[in-house]
Amino acid sequence: AYDLHYSGPMGSKRLREAICAYLRTARGVHSEPGQVMIVSGSQQALDISARVLLDEGSAAWVEEPTYWLTRHVLQAAGLRMVAVPVDGEGMDVAVGERRCRTARAAFVAPSHQFPLGATMSASRRLQLLEWANRVGAWIIEDDYDSEYRYGSMPIAALQGLDRNARVVYVGTFSKTLFPALRMGYMVIPQDLVDAFVRIRHAMDLGTPHFYQAVVADFIEEGHYARHIRRMRLLYGERRKALVESIRKEFDGKMEVMGAEAGMFLTVKLPKGTPDTEIAREAAKEKLWLAPLSPAYTGSGGQAGFILGFGGIPGEEMGRAVRHLQDLILRHGQGKTRARGADGSGDRGDEASGY
Known about the structure:
Strand content: 5-15%
Distance between the termini: 44 Å
Structural class: alpha/beta
Oligomer: single chain
Order of helices and strands: HEHEHEEHEHEEEHHHEEHEEH
Largest sheet: 8 strands, mixed
Shape: globular
Number of helices: 10
Number of strands: 12
Radius of gyration: 20 Å
């Protein structure tokens, strides 16, 4: 009967204990159950963090390019977003300091940046933590799909390196279980817990307890860890099929980024290619592509596509890539073709198909 009542703003204690144990072994996160808040997906976690930590008009570093829904949250909070470029080592902290050294926060996805797929290097992580401690800024770490890494072990979370309680860690079950569950979690620095609880209580009365109880059982009985292992193998096969199809159909001329982890990869197109227009045309033909250029602030962003491979069987990859190639050819980009299977609006985990 208890599972049918309100669970409170922090969420089920049993689920929070299970998450702590999982994060300790799988992600290197230091936490106690009293620091974990169950939320309705990572989007709510970002929203709560912005409300608690920042004031309207506060400056915040945002990866360039970045996840568009993150940008929407920060715009709604009235923050001044400072675009900090991402390269092969992740967010360029030195550029961020030049553009706004006294920013109040940095919103980053260090384990698998969206949409370029970069993993933040160890030196950049330490540089980011040192900056945050020096200026009294906060780091909001979005760790949305780090469980899926191919060819190497998952990279430990940035939060595990933090010795000064400057990191708010955000995780989600949307990628490891299913998006409709709408359940995520955050690990909050101990001295901020009360402030986060007050804001959460003003927003809603907590995530449904019944679903929390089911997920807690799933984790405690070992099903979650087995599920992750199975899905890592499956997604690894689909990722390999997509990469091979892109290389075959585009003669190795298409740059593929971020294929080492996660449930998506990204391909670049020549400057000026109308990726948004191509994506709209593709949707009419039942091929779902996420254009890259809208992930940049303003106009003139890099053209390309974000290709989610989680929802399409490996044997269908070749056909999807050829379909994409045909669409690009129709738009006069025949000499530099590019790309693969399915893109999506929610960080590459929706299925594409016909």
